[in-house]
Amino acid sequence: MPCLVMKFGGTSVADLARIRNVAQTVKRAHDEGADIAVIVSAMSGVTNQLIDYVSDIAPLADLREYDAVVSSGEQVTSGLLAIALQNLGVPARSWLGWQIPVVTDDAHGSARIQRIDVDELRRRFEEERQVAVLAGFQGLELGRKRITTLGRGGSDTSAVALAAALEAERCDIYTDVDGVYTSDPRIVPRARKLDRITYEEMLEMASQGAKVLQTRSVEMAMKHRVRVQVLSSFEDKPGTLVVDEDEIVEQALVSGVTYSRDEAKITLQSVPDRPGVAAAIFGPLADAAVNVDMIVQNISAENGHTDMTFTVGNADLQRTISVLEKNRDQLAYRELKADPNVVKVSVIGVGMRSHAGVAQRMFQALAEKGINIQVISTSEIKVSVLIAAEYAELALRSLHTAYGLDSA
Amino acid sequence: MPCLVMKFGGTSVADLARIRNVAQTVKRAHDEGADIAVIVSAMSGVTNQLIDYVSDIAPLADLREYDAVVSSGEQVTSGLLAIALQNLGVPARSWLGWQIPVVTDDAHGSARIQRIDVDELRRRFEEERQVAVLAGFQGLELGRKRITTLGRGGSDTSAVALAAALEAERCDIYTDVDGVYTSDPRIVPRARKLDRITYEEMLEMASQGAKVLQTRSVEMAMKHRVRVQVLSSFEDKPGTLVVDEDEIVEQALVSGVTYSRDEAKITLQSVPDRPGVAAAIFGPLADAAVNVDMIVQNISAENGHTDMTFTVGNADLQRTISVLEKNRDQLAYRELKADPNVVKVSVIGVGMRSHAGVAQRMFQALAEKGINIQVISTSEIKVSVLIAAEYAELALRSLHTAYGLDSA
């Protein structure tokens, strides 16, 4: 029997009517003959409510207790969906992380799945055609038998990990959008839904600001070659398939244009241009758990001094400044400039591996609109630029057109 | 070390402020040196909300899924209370039914506790002075590793069972009333809080309408001789101790006067007065799971026929009538009369074992007020009468005075 994993996010199970609707969707797939495992999130809003409870009761809560509290939302929806399925005549049962078990490490609050024991699920597929409804986002740390959670968006990871363990034909991620777009449709009206996208591109899209899938779930899908489909739980039509590169016949040069406003630029002016200066700057930041993204060191300009520019997440900006000021004597910079009014725009596509001139086309398109590029960084399948935040929409639309992504 | 079990009901953990308040109460007991295990209910309203979800999604839900859903409320409060305790510097951890485990039978929705494994709790009392915070109302059915729940008010039973397993010095049931009263203070203004009451009396009080403790928890306390205290979580003062008879020095004749409006009276007129008639009537009712309470068979009056009167719970009235009508040919009664406008009033006291005239005082007090007694039933420590519902308050107050229970 082909095996299908279906994952439904918080908006898809937001109330009883939607849970009944999900049950109908699952029943259709079951009627077609597949073995079905379903992963559910908590009703939308519930997990946030539980997190608020925990942070209100104590700012630095024991993460093991945090996990016990916040994992309860998925317990409710998994039970309710199992009942809704039974009510439609579909054999089903709910499974909690500890019942399967979904074994994780002990990094409470952001645990990683180590293995999923699927023998019993498989037996029930075969003997009873029973649908397995798993509470997403949660696992079990075997040593102390405590509930763990996988971190934000962890249900996507639960779904992909289960699909890998079951060697499922596909992992369908039902959400409130109908697929992965070439850009954010709220900003770029001519953005198109992609039929297919490679793991590598999806990973870059997720890292560069597209919120449709959790980065870690894409990494896992890529590693285990799980075919993932992102689709709408409210419309009955195909979504976007996230697949291996060789499943995509005609590969566009660029598949998507993303942006991230969660950026802040730091410039240290006139630091001594000698070996070890980068280590001296970024060592203390790493120790303070600041994630540094783009880095540019200017060509040495004046008598052995240079400027160092880099970006950090907005949330880390104050911490970054205080770390750098604390180390000012040692770093010997003349001035520290911080600018949160920046946005990172990226073009992403595996096609650029085999084509030159992709970055050049980006620089030209931005230059034509008079947009100044502050920092550039590239990877094998991505070019990112940092620009002033006020140009974000213009840049996105211009690049979308420049790479021929606009819908007809 | 003395060991104390403390149980907090839904109103005691209704919001974060109250959970913090509970943490303070637990900390005081912990500071005094006792080993502490706490049982918590769900925040008030949460379990009802979850039950509504289940019954909305399917009227006849799989009780295993029902249990998975409705047990989640206690999971939240146990985690939150553990965090609140840690925040006060008290070592604590939460425990779910499956983690202990609290082993139950497989009667999902109203499971019975078979054993509680307390070795690990004891080890943590000794080594870390850690407070154990247990999610009440839930257990684990070992065969299929499914969550079970204990039925309405099951957290009281969880607490008493845990106190028995830990051989605790006392089981304190914190609730929204400050103890057990001689009668309902909303009806009898001169009702008094009892300092002590025997298990037997408490059991009769719970069965006869007093809602302060779940009947099953009292049965369990009596069986294992667990000293139970009912007290308020909002006022810092002693409550009512439920103890063995020999712990009560001066035993009143009557300890309490209770009432239950959840009664309906059925009279079958002119049934054949021959052997087996009672079995013919009550057999089909038992098969239909109707719980028959008081039964009176009149003395045979007219040519081999008699009247049969009995009471059932109001909720069972329609079912009772339809069962009796279905069997009308066989039972051969002339007429079926049903009256839901009745109330059962009971006086309860172990003192009546050794004193005659207790029932007589009741009949006299009611007669003086012109209240007609429709049915009488007695047990070793209880006299119950069925009267017209409109006399309930008058009867309660008169009996309270007649047995010398009024406060000064």
Structure explained in plain terms:
2 copies of one chain form a homodimer. Chain A has 408 residues and is an alpha/beta fold. The first copy, chain A, is built from 13 helices and 20 strands. Among the domains of chain A are: 3-176, 3-Layer(aba) Sandwich (Carbamate kinase); 265-336, Alpha-Beta Plaits. In chain A, strand 7 (138-141) and strand 8 (146-149) form a beta hairpin. In chain A, helix 12 crosses helix 13 (392-402). The two termini of chain A are 40 Å apart. The relative contact order of chain A is 0.11. At the A-B interface, helix 1, helix 2, helix 3 and helix 4 of A face helix 1, helix 2, helix 3 and helix 4 of B.
Any key phrases for this structure?
homodimer; 13 helices; 20 strands; alpha/beta; 4-stranded mixed beta sheet; Alpha-Beta Plaits; 8-stranded mixed beta sheet; 408 residues; Carbamate kinase
Overall number of strands of chain A: 20
Treating each run of at least 4 consecutive H or I residues as one helix, how many helices of chain A? Answer: 13
What characteristic shape of chain A results from the CA principal axes?
A: globular
For this entry, what is the oligomeric state of its chains? homodimer
Q: What is the name of the CATH class of the domain at 3-176 in chain A?
A: Alpha Beta
* β-strand amount of chain A: 25-35%
CATH superfamily of the domain at 3-176 in chain A: Acetylglutamate kinase-like
Pair with the most extensive interface?
A: A-B, 37 and 37 residues
Helical content of chain A (DSSP H or I, runs of 4+): 25-40%
User: By helix and strand content of chain A, what is the structural category?
Assistant: alpha/beta
Are there runs of chain A of 5+ residues with pLDDT below 50, and where? Answer: none
CATH topology grouping of the domain at 3-176 in chain A: Carbamate kinase
